[in-house]
Amino acid sequence: RMEVDDLGARLCIDMQQREPAVREVLWDQFKEFESKLDELFDGDLVWEKLFLHSNGLEISRISINRVGVSMLDKNQWPEIYDFLKLNYARLNKFWFEFDDLFKSLMN
User: Fold this and answer.
1) List of residues 6+ apart from 26 with CB closer than 8 A
2) What is the tens place of the pLDDT at every residue in 10-67?
3) Number of neighbours of residue 57 by Cβ within 10 angstroms
4) What is the structure's pLDDT at 67?
């Protein structure tokens, strides 16, 4: 999930499964890859096992954030775009390597 607002920009891995036990399994699997993810994202990830989303749902979230930028400032759009593009590419690299493992957890 990509989010941009007046507080900053974020690229998030949101675990939104309604069943807490399923979210826990996914969270634990991501934690097993924490060092790999930290390596890809230069250690800038924020890990939140319990996160209250703006939609009212309790989820788990792993995110990388850029503060100090706002979608309301068109002059900052190139910086926001570059941040999201770079980190989406990093996330895509992770998924390319480990996507099948996470899919198997859901079956």
Assistant:
1) 15, 17, 60, 102, 105
2) 999 999 988 899 899 999 999 999 999 999 998 799 999 999 988 899 999 999 999 9
3) 11
4) 95
∠ CA 4-5-9, rounded to 5°: 40
Long-range contact set of residues 35-41: C-beta below 8 Å, sequence gap at least 24: 36/94, 37/62, 37/94, 40/90, 40/91, 40/93, 40/94, 41/87, 41/90
CB 2 within 8 A of CB 88: yes
Residue 87's pLDDT is 97
User: Is the separation of the CB atoms in 30 and 45 below 8 Å?
Assistant: no
CB-based contact 70:76 (threshold 8 Å): yes
